[in-house]
């Protein structure tokens, strides 16, 4: 799937489905928020949420006092939905409509967060491009918090195939520049009551 195809797919999803009609919806963005707070040295930490879409994580980060926030997503419609929901507080956020495999980070962030974006990259070429941005987009001593479907999680999401991971295979895929420092299994309950098995890995940039 090309970057253009991915963008078209997710734009259509967010234009045609409401928050309670997508499996990844969360009223309380856990364990993402807790893991970000666990590695943030202060509320001045710069954070990028990759594939943030219309997630409520940015709301929670703002409410927790973080303000150096960037949200990257393929769908401009998803970002517009989040901005409208947040209101004036969202003016402090840098909203970027783009693909993580072609986006050029303008800075190295303290924290890179990705809940369920990386696992859609099933082609080696796309994973390599994403990881290049990850390595350039996290400062030395910074952290990546990445959530994917676990090995016993769904094989598809939104009609697309995914690559499932445990913390060991994810760490190996990301490479030796990052050290795995924490792993958290998570059972996500969809808006219609189904359970999906996730794994969250916290990695430190050496």
Question: What does this entry show, briefly?
Answer:
The protein has 206 residues and is an alpha/beta fold. The chain has helices spanning 3-16, 32-39, 57-63, 76-86, 124-137, 167-174, and strands spanning 46-50, 68-73, 94-97, 109-115, 138-149, 156-157, 160-161, 178-189, 195-205.
Note down, in words, how this protein is organized.
By secondary structure, the protein is of the alpha/beta class. The chain starts with a helix and ends with a strand. The protein has helices spanning 3-16, 32-39, 57-63, 76-86, 124-137, 167-174, and strands at residues 46-50, 68-73, 94-97, 109-115, 138-149, 156-157, 160-161, 178-189, 195-205. The chain has six helices and nine strands.
Number of separate helices: 6
| Topology, number of strands | 9
Indicate the mean pLDDT. 94
What's the main sheet like? 7 strands, mixed
Unreliable stretches (pLDDT < 50, length at least 5) are none
Strand content: 25-35%
Question: What is the succession of H and E elements?
Answer: HHEHEHEEHEEEHEE
Structural class based on helices, strands and sheet pairing: alpha/beta
Distance between the termini: 32 Å
The helix fraction, in percent, is 25-40%
What's the overall geometry?
globular
């Amino acid at each position: 799937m090309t970057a253009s195809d991915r963008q078209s797919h997710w734009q259509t999803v967010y234009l045609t489905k409401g928050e309670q009609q997508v499996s990844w919806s969360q009223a309380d963005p856990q364990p993402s928020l807790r893991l970000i707070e666990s590695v943030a040295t202060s509320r001045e930490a710069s954070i990028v949420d990759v594939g943030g879409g219309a997630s409520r994580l940015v709301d929670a980060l703002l409410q927790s006092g973080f303000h150096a926030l960037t949200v990257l997503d393929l769908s401009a419609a998803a970002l517009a939905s989040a901005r409208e929901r947040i209101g004036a507080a969202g003016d402090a956020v840098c909203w970027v409509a783009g693909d993580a495999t072609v986006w050029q980070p303008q800075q190295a962030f303290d924290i890179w967060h990705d809940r369920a974006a990386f696992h859609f990259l099933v082609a080696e070429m796309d994973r390599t491009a994403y990881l290049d941005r990850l390595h350039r987009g996290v400062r030395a001593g910074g952290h990546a918090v990445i959530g994917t479907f676990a090995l016993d999680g769904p094989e598809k999401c939104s009609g697309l195939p995914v690559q499932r991971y445990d913390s060991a295979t994810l760490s190996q895929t990301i490479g030796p520049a990052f050290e795995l420092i924490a792993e958290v299994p998570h059972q996500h309950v969809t808006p219609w009551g189904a359970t999906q098995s996730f794994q969250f890995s916290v990695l430190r940039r050496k």
